[in-house]
Structure formats: C-alpha cells, structure tokens
Design brief:
By secondary structure, this protein is an all-alpha fold. It has helices at about 5-35, 40-60, 60-85, 95-115, 140-165, 165-185, 190-210, 220-235, 240-265, 270-280, 285-295, and strands spanning about 130-135, 140. Strand 1 (about 130-135) and strand 2 form a beta hairpin. Helix 2 packs parallel to helix 4, helix 3 (about 60-85) runs antiparallel to helix 7 and helix 5 (about 140-165) crosses helix 6. The chain is globular and about 65 Å long. GO terms for molecular function: transmembrane transporter activity.
Length: about 300
Amino acid sequence: MTATLLFVQALNGLQFGLILFLIAAGLTLVFGVMDFINLAHGVQYMVGAYLVAAFSAWTGSFGWALLLALPTALAFGLLLEAIVFRHLYDRDHLDQVLATFGIILFLNQGVKFVWGAAPLSVPVPELLSGSVEIASGLLYPVYRLAIIAAGLVVAILLYGLVNHTRIGMLVRAGASNAAMVSALGVNIQRLFMVVFGFGAMLAGFAGAMVAPILSVEPGMGDNILILAFVVIVIGGIGSIRGAFLAALLIGLVDTLGRSFAPNLLRLVLDPAAASQTGRAIAPMLIYIFMAAVLFFRPSGLFPVKR
C-alpha cells in the first residue's frame, strides 16, 4: 500500500460517490416528498447512458449528445410519471414495489429491442481525453476529473435550488408534511411531477456521464439502484445534504475496501487466504457501514424533521 495508490483510489471513490449522489438525490426527493418507492429509478440511469450513446453516434459529438440527452431524459421521466407512476401515489408500498419492478423488466427488454443486447461504447470526448499529472509522476484521466467537477457543480447548484428558492422551499415543506402543503393551496400534483422529472433527469445525467468509461448495457442500473437506496438510508430519507455525505462515504468505503482489504488482511493471514477473504469481505463493507450508522443514528445522518 502506497500513498500514491491511496490517493488515486480516493479520487476513484470520490468519482463513484458523486455518481451515486446524482442518482440518490432524485431518489431521496421522490421518496421523501412523495413517499413513493421507485425501484425503476435505476432504469433512468440506464436510459441516460443509452440516450447519450445514441445521440453521440448520431451527432459525432459528446457535448451535443449530452445536451440532447438531458431534456430527453427529463421528458421520458415525465412521460413515465404521467402514464404509470401518477396512478400509484395513493397505493400502498407493496403495489409501488411490484409496479416499478415491472417497469424495470419492461424497460430492460425495451432497450434490448431498440439497441440490442450487446454492450455499447461511447468514446471519451477528445477535449477530455488523455491524462493530467496531479502529482510528481502521478497521472490521472482527465475525464474522471471532469466527472468529479461536474458532480460537485451539480451538488452546489442543487443545494442552492433546494435551500434558497421558492420551489426548493416547497420541496422541503413537502418532504416534511405534504398534506399540510396541499392544504395551503399548493398544487401538490404539479410539485410531485416536477420532483419526479427532476430526479429522472439527474439519474439520466449520471448515466450519460459514466457512458464513456463503462459499458452501456441492459440492466446496468439495477446494481447501482441498490447502492442508491443504501445512500438515502444512511443519509436520511428526503435529505439532500445527507445523500451527498452518504454517497461520498459509500464511494470511498467501497473503492478503498475493494483495493486495500486483501492487503490489510495479509497482516494477520497468509497471502492466499487474505486475497480470498478480502475479495469476499470487500463487497460487504458498505452494508456493514450502513448497519453501524443505523445503530447509532436509526433515522440516518441528517433525517428530515417531520
């Protein structure tokens, strides 16, 4: 274990955490404001990746593809909200889980029908290709730094939107007491639509940003959805600040754990046993971390006051 490797893996963990935040931010708002369990939120991430892949192939430019993918992801989210999810708000959580799981299956098959089952690749934009020296002899991909920068900018803008605008005030009020907000004359249906569409666009943006560094394939949003739920449980349901901090912690715990768990276990085990045990324990670390946080903070790090 070296300081250089630790720094590189910390940057990777930060990048992964910010991608998780983009997904979890919309999910925690939808869950916190609307009390709606949306298992299909991960497919918005997948759709965003597929949209940027399609538009990139069409325009030949990642920048134009991203500009086209964001409003398309927003429109797709609003369409799903109007056709399906709007009719589930007053149903119990079991109905919501079953219906949104059905949406996952339908859309996973839908992208196979449109784009095929084979993974797609998106080229890294030429402007952000290559590496930059961030320390003496240490190179790091420019595009990964761009993902970190984009995630931080979105986090700052989202913080300002939620905490310093009228729509943000309504969202925070809706997360605390949606019934009271509706009784005060706010069109709660419109608020739900805005929150859902915005959450879908954030998830689509996350998918679009990772498309050049990951394979774009059916089902790519399923595993990351589980991590997004872990993030909002740790951070506190409905809390953007909690989602941001929890996402960064999960990103660092997962990345550093997978990189260094086998090395640390070599201090007490022989190399073969340490490698095998480390690979087995590493994926469990985020859930152990979640259990530890919930033991001391059962409502999460920054629960919304109700």
